[in-house]
């Protein structure tokens, strides 16, 4: 249960003075529905009002705070015209301009003949200085009410800075003094203020420097958030570890047969990863392991070996892929090897219907199928296993976390292996999974030639096409990737179709194939097959080829408007070539005009093929939020921390939370109790509920 001391912070924003339903809705959009959300809504800039010039000395386009005499009001004939108030000081005149002003209100605000202080942005209109809707107007006696340095908050349409500031000020007043949950000596070493002090400082920046994510106050708040995140993950993780699993350690008879049928030896990282996986499966606890490896690093074979282990123990295994194409591809890779091992394999996707599907499900329930490969279709309620022991999920970030659990629920204490080809930077890994066990495939299968990557300006496309023509004469297969245009599938497709017809005109109908997201599964497959096995030498595609397609003979990839893609995505795409033993080339066509970041991105790609380096660079260039698409990936969105900037703090929080739980696993000691408050503050209630006296 949430401690009472936090109740005022978890009240709805409507409990604040001056916040009615209308403003509450806007505040909710900008910050969140609760008072505590306002605390986390930090200012983005500051307005400096400390310039106090005379009217004559005031400079256009700058914020000024001016003391002057109210000369007279010019009341417009209708409210549609602006209401003007003339001010004067010893040096000259200026006007204040208001739209839709109420006459009585104005008379009160700016009484004729009185001295007032106004603050706002100076403009020049027909040679006269003016301020339109001054931010502050006060009588001279109250000049102290105008903040000389004022925080500017992120807004949403319809919400004014003033109403946010008023609400935030009240929220800050409600913030109680909470007992310190940080280790005192650590806090002292960092020179960080206490929680409440840090909050106040973050909301009342005295200068630009205070807005820096690296200011003491902001660091402290970021660390709190990261600590809550890491601690919650560590608690959940420990609980998961306590969950009984099954000890799965087969006699290797199937794995031996499959290995013998493999035309290659396993790489060092594959062997290493399998050791880790086998140890996890053999342990009494349930396995939850993430297998990371670049495209083409050979994850599928690793998955197969793990699945055969389960089958050796009399159980079943499932491999789930995010798309139909990928599922079928896995099935084709795994099928022959599984057959060589003498087990029964099936594939299930959304396309399987009716009688055939029913028959398949019956065999699965009866245990006549040992290993099943599929898509989301595997989640359906009527998919029942006789004894599911291991679930492998490929391309993890395309599935939600709950879907993963859904699959696990189809068996008793199912071991989970999650595979991803998107290398995740360490700090992001930590934020999403905490202590999740990870294996990495770092070396590529032997014999792979590196991919040469060149960046070419778009106007030179003719040269590129001519180069391709030469390659085609030598029998090359070429991917031609068209970018996503404004996230719209239609225009996306149109671009691809246009390129398709242009290339067909040049090279002939049969030598060019097209595949895009709007095509039916069977159409896609036909196009791919024409490319993989037929006479088509160019496959024009949208990003649908990002996941999946495996044509080892393809040696050239052209990516149009490469600057529109993210770094990780380009890397994924490029991974489609360089899969065979021939040298490959990736041509990044770029627009003439490039932003600095886009230039950096393309340069990075041309320089390295190491997915982990690329991922770190991507994080640095784009910030954490965009890396995988936060919601889709199940990565938490931080309010106070910025993983790209606070990576060190993340590591510290990670280590600290381990230490804390080693000493006080149930958070029952003095510091433990304070840390519970921290967890509630950041709404990690679920983690606390799993503690003994939750
Ligand atoms: P990933 O799923 O990691 O992108 P795959 O598992 O599809 O990669 O493997 C890519 C290709 O490399 C496949 O054709 C596979 O047969 C091959 N491969 C996998 N492991 C090895 C190895 N140890 N030696 C040579 N080739 C391998
Ligand atoms: Mg794969």
Automatic annotation (TrEMBL):
Which keywords does the record carry? ATP-binding, DNA damage, DNA recombination, DNA repair, DNA-binding, Helicase, Hydrolase, Isomerase, Nucleotide-binding
| Enzyme Commission designation | 5.6.2.4
| Record carries keyword Nucleotide-binding | yes
InterPro entries from the xrefs? ATP-dep_DNA_helicase_RecG, DEAD/DEAH_box_helicase_dom, Helicase_ATP-bd, Helicase_C-like, NA-bd_OB-fold, P-loop_NTPase, RecG/Mfd, RecG_dom3_C
Give a yes or no for keyword Mitochondrion in this entry.
no
> Domain Helicase C-terminal: where?
460-620
Q: Where is the Helicase ATP-binding domain?
A: 280-441
UniProt-listed GO biological process terms: DNA recombination; DNA repair
Q: Which is an annotated GO molecular function term of this record?
A: ATP binding
Which reactions are catalysed by this chain? Answer: ATP + H2O = ADP + phosphate + H(+); Couples ATP hydrolysis with the unwinding of duplex DNA by translocating in the 3'-5' direction
Signal sequence bounds = none
Q: Which SMART domains does this chain map to?
A: DEXDc, HELICc
This molecule's function is given as: Plays a critical role in recombination and DNA repair. Helps process Holliday junction intermediates to mature products by catalyzing branch migration. Has replication fork regression activity, unwinds stalled or blocked replication forks to make a HJ that can be resolved. Has a DNA unwinding activity characteristic of a DNA helicase with 3'-5' polarity.
| Family (UniProt) | Belongs to the helicase family. RecG subfamily.
Under PANTHER family, the record lists:
ATP-DEPENDENT DNA HELICASE HOMOLOG RECG, CHLOROPLASTIC (PTHR47964:SF1)
- Please identify the protein, giving its name as recorded: ATP-dependent DNA helicase RecG
């Amino acid at each position: 249960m949430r401690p009472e001391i936090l109740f005022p912070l978890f009240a709805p924003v409507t409990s604040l003075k001056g916040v009615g339903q209308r403003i509450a809705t806007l505040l909710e959009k900008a910050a969140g529905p609760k008072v505590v959300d306002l605390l986390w809504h930090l200012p983005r800039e500051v307005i400096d009002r400390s310039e106090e010039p005379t009217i004559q000395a005031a400079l256009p386009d700058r914020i000024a705070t001016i003391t002057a005499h109210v000369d007279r009001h010019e009341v417009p004939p209708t409210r549609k015209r602006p209401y003007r108030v003339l001010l004067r000081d010893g040096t000259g005149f200026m006007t204040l301009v208001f739209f839709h002003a109420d006459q009585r209100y104005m008379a009160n605000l700016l009484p004729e003949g009185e001295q007032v202080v106004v603050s706002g942005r100076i403009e020049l209109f027909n040679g006269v200085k003016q301020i339109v809707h001054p931010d502050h107007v006060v009588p001279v006696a109250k000049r102290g009410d105008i903040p000389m340095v004022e925080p500017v908050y992120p807004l949403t349409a319809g919400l004014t800075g003033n109403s946010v500031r008023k609400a935030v000020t009240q929220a800050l007043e409600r913030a109680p003094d909470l007992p310190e949950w940080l280790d005192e000596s650590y806090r002292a070493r960092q020179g960080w203020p206490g929680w409440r002090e840090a909050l106040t400082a973050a909301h009342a920046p005295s200068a630009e420097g205070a807005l820096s994510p690296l200011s003491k106050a902001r660091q402290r708040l970021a660390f709190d958030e990261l600590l809550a995140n890491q601690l919650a993950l560590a608690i959940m993780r420990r609980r998961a570890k306590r969950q009984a699993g099954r000890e799965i350690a087969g006699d290797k008879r199937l794995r031996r047969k499959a290995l013998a049928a493999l035309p290659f030896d396993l790489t060092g990282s594959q062997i290493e990863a399998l050791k880790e996986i086998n140890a996890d499966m053999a342990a009494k606890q349930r396995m939850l392991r993430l297998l990371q490896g670049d495209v083409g690093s050979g994850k599928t074979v690793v998955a197969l070996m793990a699945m055969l282990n389960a089958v050796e123990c009399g159980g079943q295994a499932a491999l789930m892929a995010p798309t139909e194409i990928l599922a079928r591809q896995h099935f084709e890779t795994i099928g022959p090897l599984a057959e060589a091992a003498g087990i029964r394999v099936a594939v299930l996707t959304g396309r399987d219907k009716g009688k055939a599907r029913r028959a398949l499900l019956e065999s699965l329930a009866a245990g006549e199928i040992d290993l099943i490969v599929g898509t989301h279709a595997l989640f359906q309620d009527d998919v029942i296993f006789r004894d599911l022991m291991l679930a492998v999920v490929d391309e993890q970030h395309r599935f939600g976390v709950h879907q993963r659990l859904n699959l696990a629920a189809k068996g008793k204490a199912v071991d989970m292996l999650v595979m991803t080809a998107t290398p995740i930077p360490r700090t992001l890994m930590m934020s999403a999974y905490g202590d999740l066990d990870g294996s990495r495939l770092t070396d590529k299968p032997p014999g792979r030639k590196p991919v040469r990557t060149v960046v070419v300006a778009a106007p030179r496309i003719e040269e590129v096409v001519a180069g391709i023509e030469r390659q085609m004469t030598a029998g090359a297969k070429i991917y031609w990737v068209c970018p996503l245009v404004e996230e719209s599938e239609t225009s996306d497709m149109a671009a691809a179709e246009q390129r398709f017809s242009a290339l067909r005109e040049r090279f002939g109908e049969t030598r060019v194939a097209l595949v895009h997201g709007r095509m039916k599964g069977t159409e896609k497959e036909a196009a791919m097959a024409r490319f993989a096995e037929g006479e088509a030498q160019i496959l024009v595609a949208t990003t649908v080829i990002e996941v999946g397609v495996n044509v080892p003979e393809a040696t050239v990839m052209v990516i149009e408007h490469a600057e529109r893609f993210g770094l990780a995505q380009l890397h994924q795409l490029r991974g489609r070539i360089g899969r065979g033993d021939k040298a490959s080339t990736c041509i990044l066509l770029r627009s003439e005009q490039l932003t600095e970041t886009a230039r950096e991105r393309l340069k990075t790609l041309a320089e390295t093929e190491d997915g982990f380096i690329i991922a770190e660079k991507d994080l640095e260039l784009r910030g954490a939020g965009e890396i995988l698409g936060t919601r889709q990936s199940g990565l938490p969105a931080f309010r106070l921390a910025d993983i790209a900037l606070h990576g060190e703090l993340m590591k510290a929080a990670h280590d600290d939370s381990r230490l804390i739980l080693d000493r006080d696993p149930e958070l029952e000691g003095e510091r433990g109790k304070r840390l519970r408050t921290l967890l509630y503050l950041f709404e990690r209630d679920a983690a606390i509920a799993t503690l003994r006296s939750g």
